[in-house]
Design brief:
With about 550 residues, the protein is α/β, with parallel strands linked by helices. Helix content is about 35%, strand content about 25%. It contains 16 helices and 18 strands. A six-stranded mixed β-sheet has the order 8-4-1-2-3-14, covered by helices on one side. The chain has a five-stranded mixed β-sheet with strand order 11-10-9-12-13, covered by helices on one side. Helix 5 packs across helix 6 and helix 5 crosses helix 7. The longest helix has about 50 residues, at about 350-400.
């Protein structure tokens, strides 16, 4: 009996479906379908009901993408190789780097490299509530996903053979583009909020076209020209509009690649997605990145898998990558959000064909495992007792009394006053308080955008807390105003901007500030008074947003 695996690529404007049918002898793509998103139909559930009618009656596995716009990725490094230590430390590391409550956040990760006393981990976080709502909508029509992934994390599946060097894969979409760096496994992933729609808008502005005609012009006439003498005057004007539309994508991509460590700098870029076939785009990327750029042929990505649709356009690249990941890896897909409270708890129908063939082998393994468990228990129990005792002794040094329950120790540390026992300092506030202070001090009328904000809280007077940020402002006077507002705050000891330079119509700058609050004062307690004194009648407080 054939098995059916469904990949659902949920974009900002369209939903794309791919259905894979597998038997013992062959596998083939059975269906490729694109549907326009209609919020009214989605609210009532009729959109998903109509899509379910297109699929086979029996669906054995579903894989879909999480809302990439709400996902934040971070590349972390830990000074140890033990997998259990890594998993135990992840929550604490992420909690200090995100303004969201960790209990309301979905966390997933993928170990990139381990060795030499070090472990590199790629993590992804997203608000849990929207993911749960998406799962509920799909489950209501019988399409509960076994896997919910970040699209960039599976782009490596499109390469038939992974080279033994870091490579980048860029999938261009309509409103979002996905960038991944792969070396053995996915080592870096990011969603860039720019795509083909930016080119449409640029063409529409330049030629005063409606949106549909601008999109048609992009698909039929737009091209990228290299060199001052290439093409006639009209072609150069169209090329200039295309380059303007690609500006946001190019800046974000360049920033991401330059931030990677040397060992992850890609040696080649693979390009896919709807706009990737634009004439001259690969040559442009090669000239800017100084590395070879190659288009991905989805027919080669399929390999021996057949395809019933006459053609599979590059716009299906993300859906195909998810489909191949589900086929090859099951639920062991990198950056799968179905962990913890969102973990899949369904049946194993997709694997029932394999169970008949491996039943005898599983029985033997089970017997060996039972015998091995006794041996392992005897070896591990002594070590476990030693670790537990060491934890109890450490808790006594930190909180002043022996407490062997980790939850109780955390409650004591978080709930008590700042402590400096044995050189350990528990700050009286978190990085979230600094982020709130910065957001509220800079009023809405200040024309500034931050791209990168780093908050460090030490809790030590001799080592002040620090705020570091990179951003863009309207004028040089705007940067001076930001510094003035920060200096008026009683907790800000020093504030300055540096590396100011004109970039187009705006000013790029770096911001740094040292924060030392007086006794009994927190950043959030004293934020209103100085700002009100400097800007009477200012607009309501605002929160500066950081684009991930």
């Amino acid at each position: 009996m054939p098995q059916h695996v469904v990949a659902i690529d949920i974009g900002a404007r369209r939903i794309r479906l791919l259905v894979l049918e597998t038997t013992f002898r062959r596998a083939r793509v059975l269906l490729a379908h694109t549907a326009e998103r209609d919020p009214a139909l989605e609210q009532g559930g009729s959109l998903w009901t109509s899509l379910r009618r297109l699929l086979p009656a029996q669906v054995d596995a579903v894989i879909c993408n999480a809302d990439a716009a709400a996902v934040s990725t971070r590349l972390l490094s830990f000074p140890f190789e033990d997998q259990r230590k890594v998993e135990a430390a992840l929550g604490f590391e992420i909690e200090s780097q995100t303004p969201h409550n960790l209990d309301e956040t979905a966390l997933t990760w993928n170990v990139g490299a381990r060795g030499g006393g070090r472990t590199d981990v790629l993590t992804a976080t997203a608000p849990r509530a929207p993911l749960a709502e998406q799962l509920e909508r799909l489950s209501a029509v019988g399409l509960e996903p076994r896997t919910m992934v970040l699209p960039a994390a599976v782009l490596g599946e499109l390469l038939p053979d992974l080279p033994d060097e870091p490579v980048a894969i860029l999938s261009l979409g309509e409103t979002q583009s996905h960038l991944a760096v792969v070396h053995g496994t996915v080592r870096f992933a990011r969603t860039i909020r720019a795509g083909g729609l930016n080119i449409d808008r640029s063409l529409a502005r330049r030629y005063n076209l409606p949106a549909d005609k601008a999109r048609l012009a992009k698909e039929t006439e737009a091209r990228v020209l290299l060199g001052d003498g290439a093409g006639d005057e009209n072609e150069r004007a169209v090329s200039a509009a295309v380059l303007e539309g690609l500006g946001a994508l190019w800046r974000a991509m360049t920033q991401s690649l330059h931030a990677l460590p040397a060992e992850l700098q890609p040696r080649r870029l693979y390009l896919t997605g709807g706009p990737s076939r634009m004439v001259g785009l690969t040559e442009l990327l090669e000239s800017r990145l100084h590395i070879p750029v190659q288009l991905i042929d989805l027919r080669q990505s399929l390999g021996e898998i057949g395809c019933r649709p006459a053609s599979l356009g590059p716009e299906y690249a993300d859906a195909l990558a998810m489909l191949l990941a589900a086929l090859r890896r099951g639920r062991a897909v990198p950056l799968n959000f179905r962990r913890g409270p969102l973990a899949y708890r369904g049946d194993l129908q997709v694997y029932r064909g394999e169970m008949v063939r491996v039943g005898v082998g599983l029985s033997i393994v089970l017997l060996l495992a039972i015998g091995g468990s006794f041996l392992r228990y005897s070896l591990v129990s002594a070590e476990e007792r030693r670790i537990n005792q060491a934890f109890c002794e450490a808790s006594k040094r930190i909180v002043g009394r022996e407490v062997c329950d980790p939850t109780a120790v955390l409650a004591i540390v978080r709930g008590g006053a700042p402590s400096t026992a044995n050189g350990i300092v528990v700050p009286s506030y978190s990085a979230t308080a600094l982020f709130e202070m910065l957001s509220r001090v800079i009023a809405p009328e200040v024309d500034v955008t931050f791209e990168d904000v780093e908050l460090r809280v030490t809790g030590r007077v001799e080592d002040p807390d620090k705020i570091s940020a990179k951003g863009e402002a309207a004028t040089f006077e705007t940067t001076d105003e930001i510094v003035t507002r920060l200096k008026q705050h009683p907790c800000v000891q020093e504030a300055e901007v540096s590396k100011q330079r004109k970039k187009g119509a705006r000013v790029e700058f770096n911001l740094s500030a040292k924060v030392v609050c007086p006794a009994g004062v927190l950043p959030s307690d004293a934020v209103k008074a100085p700002v009100a004194a400097a800007d009477a009648g200012a607009a309501p407080e605002s929160v500066a947003e950081e684009e991930n």
